[in-house]
Amino acid sequence: MIEVVKMLGDSNDRFDSILAYIQKETSNVVIQEFNSDIYGSVRNIIIPATNAPKILLVAHHDVIKGSKGYNDNGSGVAISLNILKYVIQNNITNVEFLFSDKEEFGGIGIRHYLENNIKRLDKTFGINLDVCGLGDTIFFKRYITKRSIKLPSENELDVPFSDSYVLQQFNVENVLFITGIDDKTKLISYIFEHQHNGHLDNKIEELNDTIMQKVYDLVIDIIKED
User: Fold this and answer.
1) Is the torsion defined by CA of 42, 45, 48, 53 positive or negative?
2) Which 8-state DSSP code applies to residue 182?
3) Are 54 and 125 in contact (CB under 8 A)?
4) Cα separation of 162 and 174, whole Å?
5) Are strands 55-60 and 125-129 parallel, antiparallel or unpaired?
6) 3-class DSSP state of 24
7) What span, in angstroms and rounded, lies between the C-alpha atoms of 165 and 175?
8) Is the pTM of this model over 0.85?
9) 3-state SS record for 82-148
10) d(CA 3, CA 21)
11) pLDDT digits (tens, 9 = 90+) for 133-168
């Protein structure tokens, strides 16, 4: 997984790198681009489900200025790209992928996506991967869903803003996955150091390939269940 993060590079060329990676796997890709009065160009990358989407897999690709964004959110993007390969290789047609833009500025990209696609998503379960490259433990947060997650209940965690909040506003049940250390007294500060302008988010060697693989396996299990 870390090799994919390295391939994506830092924030300067991430959009182009993601698109190039996808186009090697499939021509079924849509660029949703629009202009925000405040934030300028917003570009989402969508790999539409061929059939009605049962799963919407979300990972934001934008990065806070000044950060290389290896964990936030190169990790989530890399895991999603590996899942895309699995979905294509196994001819799974009911999973839709969204690499959203401007999550760091209030979820502008995913909001635009939902405004244009919500009618297709009435029976869709969202999975949001955000900062999933650290530590040894997977945490999650459910949004308007009681769906069982194969993790101990104590691993449910309240988190700051993410694209999951926007999914919730549009009544799309979803779950956010995030990873970190199994010490809740230090967890939040640990995560903050590895995202946004936290200095450790510029160090790719901080990423943990094993935990990224565990997130990948967990999402694949959910896809198989559907």
Assistant:
1) negative
2) S
3) yes
4) 12
5) parallel
6) helix
7) 10
8) yes
9) HHHHHHHHCCCCCEEEEEECCHHHCCHHHHHHHHHHHHHCCCCEEEEECCCCCCCEEEEEEECCCCC
10) 13
11) 999 999 999 999 988 888 877 898 888 889 999 999
